[in-house]
Amino acid sequence: AKARSSLKDKYVSLLKSKGNWSVGKPADAADATSNDAAAAAAAASSSSSSSSSSSSCLGVTLERACRSFSRARVAMDKTKGFAISAKIQQALPSLLERVMALLNKTFITTVKRGDRAAVTRCLRAYTYIDQTHTAEEVLREEVVTPILNVTVTKAHLVRAQQKQQQQQQASLAKKPQGAAQNMDDLDPKAKKAILVLPLDLKELSAVAGKASSLDALFQLTLQALKTACGPALEASVFPFTAFHFTARSIAHELLPAIVSRGSNQLFAPYIPQRFLAHYRAGRRLVSGLEALCPDDARAKTFADTPALAQFDDKWNLPVYFQLRFQEARKALEDAVRSPPSLTDQDNKMSPPSSSPLALSATRAVWTGVLRCWREDVWVDRLTHRFFKATLQLLKQYASWVSLGLGP
Fold it and tell me: Among residues 28, 214, 288, 350, which is most buried (max CB within 10 A)?
């Protein structure tokens, strides 16, 4: 008992020497946390309608409360077996609940106001108490989800697809497939709804409903999320590398929303031209999300997220390739049904005056090879397949020539 008492006295002396410890008992750390939490609650009630400076003061108080809470938790671990640990153990859960409620509210308020300094204090507070996942969850529920509920809706997705199909059919599209709607094309009111905090969700819904294509809708949604979550994304640089807002707050909610709310036509590969436009819109969206990651480590976390894997699996690229390959192979198969003959120049399949190729089969294989690598056909993830298709076309043509030159 004497040795234990001596150890306790040495530990308390050590705590005093570490600064910001004016008390002589580890349990007083819990009292300090309680006092800071009470001060934060008072600041919150008095600053509910005040300026950002009040939120900044509240952030400072909460940061101090979380630091005290962390020290109290360390003190409890160091004093296991002492009667004083029971008091700390009883106080910590209720203190954590009070601090988290105030911290979550302050975090969302400062994010919506665009106060990066205050957001940084909140992130530091979350780090002190090891609640980084809570910050990601709160941002997802309070900021990301409301935006997606007015932009990525079933009605807006269907309308954007219909407008895109009408443009393709009538050849009226002024931008190449896959090009995003330029922000300069929007009127000032629409720009304000997307680029200025706090976001006007009603106006944002109206802007999304006017998107001229699926790609435009995705890019408008991405820009709105970037604006709304920008303060948190900008503040989560080193040393706050434990926060994965892009992967666990934005992509975690956005990509499943597209998958669940999109119609069957969104991912159907049976109309290749339409599928390619939708696929490229999806890839541009993924690239935009990756660009929001502050560093390579978090970009890798985003690349490994289940939401992205589910989104990628919805695009049936093998079926798309088979349809495109059949288009390229059909013309060649029609041309090689008979052995090569110079009489091709005298029949209805004679080459046009602009073509230097005399045989229809030669023209067919050349057209098929070029088709595999056309901008409106080729897909980067299918490069190996299109290369194999090119070799197959050339092999089929070589076999046809050998047959014609044989005895």
Answer: 214
Q: What is the largest CA-CA distance in the chain?
A: 115
Q: H helices of 114-184, where?
A: 116-128, 132-139, 145-151, 154-170
CA distance 167 to 286: 24
Per residue in 254-304, pLDDT tens? 999 999 998 888 999 999 999 999 999 999 999 999 999 999 999 999 999
Three-state secondary structure call for residue 326: helix
Please give the structure tokens belonging to residue 319: 């079926």
Instruction: For residues 343 and 349, give the distance between their C-alpha atoms in angstroms, rounded to a whole number.
Output: 10
Q: Distance (Å, rounded) from C-alpha 209 to C-alpha 91?
A: 51
Token pair of 85, please? Answer: 């640990």
Q: What CA–CA distances, in Å, run from 192 to 203, 214, 221, 291, 351?
A: 9, 21, 14, 22, 57
Neighbours of 272 (CB within 10 A): 19
The Cα 373–Cα 185 span in angstroms is 32
Q: Is the pTM of this model over 0.70?
A: yes
3-state helix, strand, coil in the chain (%, to 5): 75, 0, 25
Own/partner contacts of 79-88, CB < 8 Å, gap of 24 or more, are: 79/8, 79/11, 79/26, 81/4, 82/4, 82/8, 84/25, 84/26, 84/27, 87/27, 87/30, 88/26, 88/27, 88/29, 88/30
The token pair at 373 is 């690598």
